[in-house]
């Protein structure tokens, strides 16, 4: 397992993302990085700009950061915090490479944010070849049972996909469904399967680096209110 990136604006659910990262990691030197993305403060003075950057975290954010550091320390993990201003696609790619990122975990509050810096970061992450675990609002740190949503686009064999996922996450595929954006009449059947098999995470694949997740492919799994693991089919 390489290192784990968590984009965040330090909402309380960041701690759940950190605990999920700890449960997912092998514990052999894995580092967790919290990435806070923000627009650069506007100031004509360089010194005023630096002061603004240094003191911009709220008391609530500082409390969340302290809690995350405490959780990581007690579990024997290294946790780093990085604030990135004026994030761009190329800059994010370089950051992911420099950090040797193997997994991205996105808290629900960040994924649902409408702030441009957050939506852009999520979009650029989806263009990477990294597995991306988007947590639900009710997520627990230990995700174990998965339903694979197959989109009919040359999916890897399930056993091979399972082996590759387990290099990153201790998640077991216990059920699968073939579905396309036109077959949403299966929603009730899938909901019953989720309840019956005690499924806590959905898995879907994305194939193209240039276009990232197709809107319909991503929106359908996310509509069930569970955490969603999105994997780049040929590069887990």
How do the helices and strands line up, and which of them pair or pack?
Layout: E1 3-8, H1 14-24, E2 31-38, H2 46-54, H3 59-74, E3 78-85, H4 89-98, E4 101-106, H5 108-111, H6 116-126, E5 132-134, E6 145-150, H7 158-165, E7 172-178, H8 187-196, E8 201-206, H9 215-222, E9 227-232
Structure description:
This protein is an alpha/beta fold. The chain has two domains: 3-134, Rossmann fold (3-Layer(aba) Sandwich), CATH 3.40.50.620; 145-232, Rossmann fold. The longest helix has 16 residues, at 59-74. It is globular and about 60 Å long. The mean pLDDT is 85. The protein has nine helices and nine strands. Helix 1 (14-24) runs parallel beside helix 3. It has a nine-stranded mixed β-sheet, sandwiched between helices. 37% of the residues lie in helices and 24% in strands. The protein has helices spanning 14-24, 46-54, 59-74, 89-98, 108-111, 116-126, 158-165, 187-196, 215-222; strands spanning 3-8, 31-38, 78-85, 101-106, 132-134, 145-150, 172-178, 201-206, 227-232.
Summarize the entry for a quick read.
InterPro entries: Rossmann-like_a/b/a_fold (IPR014729). The protein contains 9 helices and 9 strands. It is of the alpha/beta class.
How many domain units? Answer: 2
Which structural class do you get from the secondary structure elements? alpha/beta
Query: CATH top level of the largest domain?
Result: Alpha Beta
- The coarse silhouette is globular
Number of DSSP strand runs:
9
Enter the CATH topology name of the largest domain: Rossmann fold
Number of helical regions:
9
The chain-level mean pLDDT equals 85
Distance between the termini: 11 Å
Instruction: Write the element-wise H/E pattern from the N-terminal end onward.
Output: EHEHHEHEHHEEHEHEHE
Unreliable segments of 5+ consecutive residues? none
Could you tell me the strand content as a percent range?
Answer: 15-25%
Oligomer: single chain
CATH homologous group name of the largest domain: HUPs
Which strands sit side by side, in order, in the main sheet? 3-2-1-4-5-9-8-6-7
Tell me the CATH architecture of the largest domain: 3-Layer(aba) Sandwich
Major sheet size, sense and barrel closure: 9 strands, mixed
Radius of gyration: 18 Å
Helix content: 25-40%
């Amino acid at each position: 397992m390489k290192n784990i990136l968590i984009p965040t604006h330090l909402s309380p659910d960041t701690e759940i993302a950190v605990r999920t990262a700890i449960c997912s990691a092998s514990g052999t030197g894995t580092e967790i990085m919290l990435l806070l993305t923000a627009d650069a403060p506007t100031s004509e003075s360089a010194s005023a700009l630096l002061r603004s950057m240094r003191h911009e975290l709220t008391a609530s954010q500082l409390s969340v950061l302290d809690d995350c550091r405490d959780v990581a320390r007690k579990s024997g993990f290294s946790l780093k915090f990085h604030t990135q201003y004026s994030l761009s696609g190329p800059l994010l790619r370089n950051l992911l490479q420099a950090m040797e990122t193997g997994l991205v975990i996105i808290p629900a509050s960040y994924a649902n944010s409408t702030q441009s810096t957050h939506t852009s970061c999520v979009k650029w992450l989806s263009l990477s070849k990294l597995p991306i675990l988007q947590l639900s609002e009710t997520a627990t740190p230990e995700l174990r049972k998965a339903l694979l949503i197959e989109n009919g686009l040359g999916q890897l064999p399930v056993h091979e996909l399972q082996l590759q996922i387990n290099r990153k996450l201790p998640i077991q595929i216990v059920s699968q469904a073939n579905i396309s954006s036109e077959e949403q009449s299966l929603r009730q059947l899938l909901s019953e399967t989720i309840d019956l098999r005690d499924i806590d995470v959905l898995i879907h694949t994305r194939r193209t680096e240039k276009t990232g997740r197709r809107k319909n492919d991503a929106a359908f799994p996310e509509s069930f209110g569970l955490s969603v693991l999105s994997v780049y089919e040929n590069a887990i």
